[in-house]
Amino acid sequence: MNRFISFFVIFLGINITLLSTNIIQVERTYTERFDSVFSVVSRVQATTGILYERLVPFAQLQKFNSNVYSVDTSNAKHFIQGYSELYNAAFQSFAKLPYSVDSLNIRKHLTS
Q1: Number of folded domains in the chain?
Q2: Does a structural domain hold residue 59?
Q3: Within-domain flag for 97
Q4: From first to last of its 112 residues, what are the pLDDT tens digits of the chain?
Q5: Residues with Cβ within 8 Å of residue 76, at least 6 apart in sequence
Q6: Structure confidence at residue 72 (pLDDT)
Q7: In the prediction, which pLDDT does 10 show?
């Protein structure tokens, strides 16, 4: 029994050491990684409280309704993706959109 306890204490000590030295990394989202890398960059000029660069822009809102691509219509799936991106890109509490993405998905199913 003493061997088991000794082995467990050594195993626990190694894991705590690995976690504290960040050899074992915790899964983080793209936005969390962006924030950690760019934490020293001033966000004063982003007066809207939203940085679209904080996420991967699948909805490509920067191309939407532009003269270059002439995209002027959307669908429910595209709207929810774009809303999700803007919701998650907010770094200031005043910029958060009023509804969570999950509540939008529920509303979409209720209206269809």
Answers
A1: 1
A2: yes
A3: yes
A4: 677 677 666 766 676 665 555 555 567 788 888 888 888 888 888 888 888 888 888 888 877 665 555 556 678 788 888 899 889 888 888 888 888 888 877 665 555 5
A5: 108
A6: 62
A7: 73
Distance CA 105, CA 79 (A): 11
Q: Exposure of 89 by Cβ count < 10 A (0-12 exposed, 13-18 middle, 19+ buried)?
A: buried
Measured CA to CA, the distance from residue 96 to residue 58 in angstroms comes to: 19
The pLDDT of residue 70: 55
Which distant-in-sequence residues (6+ apart) come within 8 Å of 1 by Cβ? none
Structural domain for 79, as ranges = 28-35+48-111
In a domain, 77, yes or no: yes
Q: Quick check: is 53 in a domain?
A: yes
The residue among 46, 41, 43, 79 whose CA lies nearest residue 61 is 79
- Whether the CB-CB separation of 35 and 60 falls below 8 Å is answered with no
